Amino acid sequence: HQWTSSGTHLNEYNTSILTDIISCTETLESGGDFETEFTVKGLDDSLSTVYVYGRDMVINNTGWINTGLKIGVDGTAPEADASIDYRDWGNDDINVEVNCSDSGGSGVDYWDYAWSNSTAPPASGYTRVYGTYKLLTYAQDDTVYLHIKVFDNVGNSEAYALGPYRKDSIAPENTVTPAMHNGSSEEIVLDIEITDENSGISEVLYLLTGTDTEPDKGDYSIAIESSFSYTIPDTEDAVYYMHIISTDKAGNETYTCSGPY
User: Fold this and answer.
1) The whole model's pTM is what?
2) Quick one: CA dihedral 209, 212, 216, 222, positive or negative?
């Protein structure tokens, strides 16, 4: 700023790509003291240092003085990175590592997370984390989404909805009706129903034998449906057992042996 001019002059020596001088106001001129207020705009994402230079009417000067003041600009939103963006059915706990970062320069202030059953962000129920890393664990049987909101130190933010993540630790249920039969040599119809309350049935194996000893898995037949009927033919003086192995989509397995028939 040039004091001797009737107008306000703005100059930026060694013009920097980091800042623009927007305005200048003379705030004090008394007893040899001069004070000026500059309005300065930082450009792009940067952290710059403010220097000042003063010169009197006979060209004595201060040289460039480091004021110790900084101008920091961060217009870039922070980011959150998850170790897995989704998970199909599994029977173990859901573990997601979250790392947050801020390339704009101000750094991550905090981030919030919440689990929900919807892709829409919940209105409440978030947990706040100070720091950039945390291992998140979800232990319930469910299909859930992970919502993250991350904030930097100048108020920029970004929101994420990750998932779905699926967990099912409950094995399927095998039901054979009747569970046993003692009587005439007439044919016996077995109604077989396999149910699973979470992930659903992946595979059903069945085998009719004359013993209740568990057979080798390779001896079974594969059922086309999870509910079906099996007819034991009319045979004199015979004992049968129905062996069933059911597996759900999360890998849980149930073995049952029904009979004797």
Assistant:
1) 0.80
2) positive
